[in-house]
Amino acid sequence: MVWRMLVVLAGVQTLLLFLGCGGGGGPLKRAVLPHPEEAFPTSLHGTWRGKANAYYAPDGFFQILQKPIDQLPCMKCHAGTYADGTPVDTATYTPSCRDCHICDEKGKPDLTKPVPWQQCFNCHIRGVEIALAPMLGYKDVHWEKGLRCMNCHTLREMHGDGKIYPSYLAPGAMDAKCENCHSPAPTNVSHSIHNAKVHCTACHGKNFSCIGCHFPPPPGEAPMADLLYGFTLLMNRVGTNKVYPGAMMIHTYKGKSFVVVAPRGHIIAPKEEARKCDDCHGSKTILEYQQTGKIVITKRGNGVDLENATGVIPLVPNWQNVFWFAFVEDVTPDGPAPTWTFMKEGHPDLTQMWYAAPLTEQQLRKLATVPQQITVPVRPRKAKK
What we know:
Layout: H1 12-19, H2 36-39, H3 44-47, H4 49-56, H5 62-65, H6 117-123, H7 128-132, H8 141-144, H9 155-159, H10 189-194, H11 200-204, E1 205-206, E2 208-210, E3 227-229, E4 231-237, E5 243-253, E6 256-263, E7 267-268, H12 277-280, H13 284-292, E8 295-296, E9 298-300, E10 306-308, E11 311-314, E12 323-330, E13 340-346, E14 350-353, E15 356-357, H14 361-368
Parallel strand pairs: 4-11, 6-14, 8-12
Antiparallel strand pairs: 1-7, 2-3, 4-5, 4-15, 5-6, 9-10, 12-13
């Protein structure tokens, strides 16, 4: 979910909350919102329903695991402490104002004390992207310029608006948009060609996927010991009319494998690192798909290493039978420490597209076209009289 939040609720910002304005990210429609105490119980922060909805979906991981989600650690990965430093008992934890705010003994938040952005990262583990980005050679241009969570995200996102959203990816759930600050987009050839059909992050975003808790690492390595990076999936995002970048998560359990793909592109690179034409068009992965009908996502490297495909990877039709993986699993799931081993190679047993759809054949034909040098017609100057 969101990882950029710096909530300041004192004074005028409390008024802005009720007007429907955010803590940043440009103007929003002014609408009267329910009081946070009324809206929070149905909000994504108040229910964490996004995880449960994905898990219990007809194509969700429950179909393989067959365990209630409340028995899994994914609903208990809360911060070690509340905002006031009190330790959290994950066995009895329920979301509340205390997660972010200093509260009195009755649970009423003290709105004179701003919420530091570090508190957001206590729950939003994807905040580690900021720490990991430099290790991977990535830069996040917004973070380096001093922007923090609430420069893009809004108070409506934090507390809810009384509506029930099935996921933060659902249309209307989030207010943060590139165009809130970057509008109109600078005039250039790439923007002229792509703006209407391709989202900004498809060219400007960076991505990676963890292969620890969601994808066990190679034998002999500890969880979260490695990452899939240097790649991005291109997919159509459901609920929009645009191509987005995406990521994947890969689970294995008792010989079964599960792969979920979803839109994702949170790290925004400097403009000089934006993708070039041939990063997407006529790429090695497109050529591999045309020549072999298969795209190898992960494979066994030397020894116990896993190697992953790099560059732009199109989410092709029938990708479930096109993408090829080397899967690993924990052979001691009930032991004190994991023991990883290669499980099998092949296609996943179960797949899920969460707010994603494959590229169309027409889109793939465009990607398969090797880009030619693009020239911009220049209107000839009138001769001087």
